[in-house]
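In this notation, each integer encodes one residue's backbone shape. One such record reads:

___
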Amino acid sequence: MKTISKTVLILSLVSLFTDIASEMLYPILPIYLRSIGYSVIFIGFLEGIAELIAGYSKGYFGNLSDLHGRRVPFVRLGYFLSSISKPLLVMSQLPGIVLFARTLDRMGKGVRTGARDALLSEEATPTTKAQIFGFHRSFDTLGAVLGPSIALVFLVVYPNHYVLLFYLAVVPGLISVGLTFLLKETITKEKKLTNSLTLFSYLSYWKESNPNYRKLVFGLIVFAFWNSSDVFLILKAKEVGLGDSYVIGIYIFYNLVYAIFAYPLGILADRVGFKKMFLFGLFLFVLVYFLMGFAQKLEWVVIAFFLYGIYASATEGISKAWISNLVPKEEVGTAIGFFSGLQSVSLFFASLIAGWIWFLFGAPVTFFVTGVIALLVLIYFFFSKIEEKNLN
């Protein structure tokens, strides 16, 4: 049985250091932008545009990676773009520069996602797909534990020194880029294009893909369209009465649970099946959203975030492993890029919808509606006959 290869370990370390850099700034970015005079409306517009661009680029560059038969150049460029975006955010306070820097960061994610996941898939066997993706997710999410922790300690020692923190985030970013030069790949033959490649060529993949892939991605996207940003869970924790440090602390706690369970649940998914593990994760998501809708005590919030971490472990890496098992090897970049792109766009609209429901009806209704939709998606997957057969 093929276990964790050198390529998988390097990609996992690259994601670890990149996430440390990104998560050092994730909870700080809105605070920094507010401190230099930007409105909540501009911050929301900034994040929305960035996510939409990331969503589109995931599909386009995943397709481009398949067509050229190359993975590593896209991985390297993607991490480089994200790394250099960090200091750009504080080099100028002009709205255009801030928007460009944030977009560059998300573009970097789009450039690398499909190619990176295709590399991970190529390093796995039919019986280790979820294990490989789970191992990578553990390292990636560990960065989301270390990054906010570093930021929290830094701001305790150096309060309000936001600009310096942005420059410090360059260090782990550059380490991640350097690690990509250790990656090796077998270059496959480029595909001959039957027609000219356009910016939207990859969208035709939906019609070209097999029925199992379409059934799986349909369910995942319906779920994603209602699965809003984790910011709403954090806002609920704040509403219950947690202070800022406790809110960051519970976010770190969620990521720690995710990091701990992603790898073992990946191994288990390879044994019991992707569908069973994914259904288990969806069940936990439903439970979490019902709990958070009515939680008024700290203990229930902590329990909900613990279960939410296990939900993420049981679904995020597993869904990509499942997708990679349903398409030929030379299509993995396009297949995962297409899904990841739609997922990012769905997250943008899901967050708009959740914010609108919260504004009109309050937090309980927001979480209840999302929980009910997730329950319907769970029922869809329970009765859908989607193969888990490996086609590579």
